């Protein structure tokens, strides 16, 4: 590993004042490398106009009509 | 009248309405099973016997006085211990709220009370609704009624176990990543996660503002339909609740599946599924096909994005909500709770906003591609046979236990990110005697349709009527 776990723990402590609660927590934080990899694959899919509030509109746009 | 606890919710309400049974008799039937099974299952956190008896007496008096009776009149219930009732205990399954009493009452509970139901207790749950198994270090693990060393599913563990063991006619659960559907599957009952925004969340303990849902666990699809007809609909106290009209869910239960197009995913949902689970699903599909449905195997689009984005939203939100306790008293949580929240602090805000921003476009694209050729998706709720509590115990297990723990909810989480409604019901039993859950998901606000499918299935099968061995 390239120091990612240590850097992650340091960042959490610095930004939030939260320390690793236990070893499983350390392991799950280290597993964030997989999250990064997953987001890397998705780069380029978000467009400029995307905004969080569009979800409720999407629910309406895709909703069930009378079966 | 015998076997009162075996009645479904709708049958029990009808029995009270017509004078075939009193509310007090229903309550006593629940107590009998609770006294018998709960020492094994540990499904409750608190009970209010005196309050329940007074409520039953009042309900029976209303019948005698020929007052107007609601849809749930005289039916005793207990709920996951995170639904606030002013002045009553609400532990959220945590030592941190062992003595906490809210000052407000949850809209869903209030709406059911307005229809004549009453609450006799708070049910066991994962701490702060944060695990898919039913482990709880403060109040004790909840045990599966069909095979007690195995998990109940979570986080609405006590809701699943208590409904299965006939301790209650129904229970509210909450679903942020599968927490209604998982215990419904593992305990062999019926549970529905409504469309995001369908049911008010006012007075429900928050875990993830984006993914939280309120819904029922019952023994039948019709029972779920009855409760949904009471709790769904806009609530001024929860501005995020939809203004979408509430259909007559029970009227939709016709048994007619002619023309229904079922999609079975060939990607993601069947990965690493156990053979008994696949076999049970295939048999269930035959039952649905016999009623007129057609079945299409199909790949699903966008699942990498759904998994990646869906995987961080609730982690970030839970970490944010719990930040002060995670600073001040992290050891008050079970290890499996704090260890899951901890990485949430390291996820960058732009990732979180990207996940939220892509949710709408992904739903549109997913719905356009999936819900054109088919009307609903059918998958296993849990792709494996039900594991033991020991196999999934992060607090005491070896490194790597967390992967088995997290695998339990792999098939339910996607529908929380997509915001789609999904029901889980029993479709058989695994070699260990534990139930196998079938998940049916539909378009936004398709609760009537997916409940109708579950109801049609239950007309032709008897899995949902079977009694767990813990009842003797």
Structure notes:
The complex is a heterodimer of chains A (67) and B (472). With 67 residues, chain A is mainly α. Chain A contains four helices and no strands. In chain A, helix 1 packs across helix 2. The longest helix of chain A has 13 residues. Chain A is elongated, with a radius of gyration of 19 Å. Chain B is globular. In chain B, helix 7 runs antiparallel to helix 15. In chain B, strand 7, helix 8 and strand 8 form a beta-alpha-beta unit. Chain B is of the alpha/beta class and 472 residues long. The longest helix of chain B is centred in the last third of the chain and has 22 residues. The interface between A and B is large, with 43 and 57 residues.
What order do the helices and strands come in, and which of them pair?
The complex is a heterodimer of chains A (67) and B (472).
Chain A: H1 4-16, H2 23-30, H3 32-42, H4 54-61
Helix pairs in contact in A: 1-2
Chain B: H1 9-17, H2 23-41, E1 44-47, H3 49-64, E2 76-80, H4 107-114, E3 118-123, H5 157-164, E4 170-174, H6 181-187, E5 190-193, E6 214-218, H7 221-231, E7 261-265, H8 275-290, E8 294-298, H9 303-321, H10 323-328, H11 335-341, H12 349-370, E9 376-380, H13 401-407, H14 413-418, E10 422-429, E11 435-442, H15 447-460
Parallel strand pairs in B: 2-3, 7-8, 7-9
Antiparallel strand pairs in B: 1-3, 4-6, 5-6, 5-10, 9-11, 10-11
Helix pairs in contact in B: 5-6, 7-15, 9-12
Measure the end-to-end span of chain A.
Answer: 53 Å
Tally the helices of chain B.
Answer: 15
How many E strands of chain A?
Answer: 0
Determine the number of helices of chain A (DSSP H or I, runs of at least 4 residues).
Answer: 4
The proportion of residues in beta strands of chain A is under 5%
Mean pLDDT of chain B: 97
The overall pLDDT average of chain A reads 93
Order of helices and strands of chain B: HHEHEHEHEHEEHEHEHHHHEHHEEH
Please describe the structure with a list of short key phrases separated by commas or semicolons.
heterodimer; A: 67 residues; mainly alpha; 0% strand; elongated; B: 472 residues; alpha/beta; 8-stranded mixed sheet; 3-stranded mixed sheet; 11 strands; globular
